[in-house]
Design a protein that fits this description.
This protein is α/β, with parallel strands linked by helices and 322 residues long. It has one domain (10-47, 55-65, 128-316): CofD-like domains (Rossmann fold, 3-Layer(aba) Sandwich), CATH 3.40.50.10680. Helix content is 38%, strand content 19%. It has 13 helices and 14 strands. The strands form four sheets. A seven-stranded parallel sheet has the order 5-2-1-9-10-13-14, with helices on both faces. A hairpin with a 2-residue loop joins strand 11 (236-237) and strand 12.
Length: 322
Amino acid sequence: MSGALHPRGHVLALSGGVGGAKLAAGLAAVLPAGRLTIAVNTGDDFEHLGLTVCPDIDSVVYALAGLNDTERGWGVADERWRAMDMLGKLGEAQWFNLGDRDLGMHIARSWRLRDGQSLSEVTARLTGELGIVHPVVPMSDTPVRTQVETEEGLLEFQRYFVGEQCRPVARSIRFAGTPGAVPSPGFSQALERDDLAAVVICPSNPYLSVDPIMAVDGVRDVLLSRRVPCIAVSPLVGGKALKGPLTKLIEELGKASDNASIAQHYRGLVDQLVIDECDAADAEGLRELGVSVTVTQTVMREAADREMLAREVLAAVGVETD
Ligand code: FO1
């Protein structure tokens, strides 16, 4: 499946945090309202200080709203940390940083969840208030929690990632709550659309950010039997992730940190892989693995880069933007 059956149809993007959020923002900039749904990993979510934190949803929302901190890679730009200072004075946990503006997001989300709304309903409301026109939907409204089995024991994802800075050697990854977590209504609807044109897997960590989405009940099977192209953007540039622990993790899981490993991991799920121009030499080997390959600049430093990559990804699967 290399070309879209519906060139002006709907695009479903699957995203994790940081890198994925950048391409999601690029797709949102080049596709009109009504032609894009962004389904986001919620395996990184956790409860902290009585608040529900959804890091990947927040990264996507902040990127689409133009509020994201591009230096730090997470959270809100122009942030202050006075609430954290006060929490420190009060002897509360300091290992996970909640900026003052970001706290507003977590409070708004948490009290409405506690009021009985689903994560989908809350996310739709918050994105609407921020003027985001494309649906950003959680992969599931049922809690899924990524856990890393390490040489030092089982760690909840944020403890492993932020608390321990990915230091413990990882042995395996599991997604507590799966099987049993069903796709959110918005995700299901996007997967089942008659006019679905393509599925785009954003440049997120396949093991930590995309696998939890695939672990949601039925998602992997629907994608394996899809009738539309599925294209992934490799999160590796020169064998390394731009941000995050992908390289260390891939090696600890006993795999090579290269595009071939990404292609093998997505075997059957993707028809096409987009790789960075500095990895052009990988293209031939990847084609031998059965995937079509687009070589382009995948590093997104500014809005123009995000939009250019989004246009290239959509062109590769025959989806029109204008
Ligand atoms: N990442 C960090 O490295 N340190 C933090 O203190 C931190 C706080 C934080 C608060 C809210 C939020 O939405 C994300 C936050 N992140 C932080 C990022 C985040 O936990 C990870 O980047 C993702 O889970 C990986 O996609």
